[in-house]
Specification:
Blueprint lengths: L1 E10 L2 E11 L4 E5 L6 H8 L7 E6 L2 E2 L5 H6 L2 E4 L11 H8 L8 H11 L1 H5 L10 H13 L5 E5 L7 H16 L3 E5 L3 H7 L2 E6 L2 E7 H5 L2 H6 L4
Parallel strand pairs: 3-8, 3-9, 6-7, 7-8
Antiparallel strand pairs: 1-2, 1-4, 4-5, 9-10
């Protein structure tokens, strides 16, 4: 579904990604793990065309994305749910969700509102509330819900557990798994390696802009290096 080959990205003199290659198969969850500054978010920004790679290839369903605009990528079904939520704080919950569907002209938008509210009942309760007054967990739910309103084939999720209480993290990851079970492929950037490996099928570990380790999530859970660096082993 998604194929990245030898991707290199620079921010001025900073070499953020160094020859990154990865795959996301249809219907899978792929986790991208690593410390702060490893290049995880940059990888997602390159896919969603927010940064231009210096080298490499990005293909989605066999088609190159490198000449596509960010809006073109959205229309192809690649939806980026960014770190720190990035909701519209002065708009209502419902207005934020409507913005998520701005490219759509099909008749299923209303049904997808109800689908989002099924995933996140609290958003339905607060549909008329100003988004900036929601709790952190509710804002993360809204960010994911807004992304789902764009009807993604591939959802790029950046740090969905960041700053949330453990019980909210548990709920969010349960919903991410449910979204995937209903057919949406997910590329998940996450520092909570326990949770990421628990729900993903395959995982890559980024260090200093390079893929240093990859394998099935079950395999990586048994890796002594992963246990030492990320799982507290």
């Amino acid at each position: 579904m998604l194929a990245i080959e030898n991707l290199s990205v620079h921010y001025g003199y900073v070499h953020a990604l160094r020859g990154v290659s990865l795959r996301v198969k249809p219907g899978s969850i792929v986790a991208l793990l690593g410390a702060n500054g490893a290049g995880k978010s940059t990888t997602l920004r390159a896919i969603s065309r927010q940064v231009q790679p210096k080298e490499g290839a990005i293909q989605f369903a066999g088609e190159s994305l490198l000449q596509q605009s960010a809006s073109d990528v959205v229309k192809k079904g690649i939806i980026h749910c960014p770190e720190n939520r990035r909701i519209f704080p002065k708009f209502t919950v419902e207005e934020n969700l409507q913005i998520g569907a701005y490219t759509r002209r099909d008749e299923m938008v209303k049904a997808d509102f109800e689908k989002v509210f099924r995933y996140f009942p609290r958003l339905k309760e607060r549909r008329s509330q100003i988004a900036g007054t929601l709790s952190g967990g509710e804002q993360q739910m809204l960010a994911i819900g807004r992304s789902l309103m764009a009807k993604p084939q591939l959802l790029l999720l950046d740090e969905p557990s960041l700053g949330l209480a453990p019980n909210i993290v548990r709920d969010i990851f349960g919903i991410i798994k449910q979204i995937n079970d209903e057919g949406t492929a997910i590329l998940l950037v996450e520092q909570n390696a326990h949770k990421a490996l628990e729900i993903s099928d395959y995982a890559y570990v980024l260090e200093n802009g390079r893929i240093e380790l990859e394998g099935s999530s079950d395999q990586l859970k048994q890796s002594e290096q992963i246990k030492r660096l990320y799982l507290g082993g």
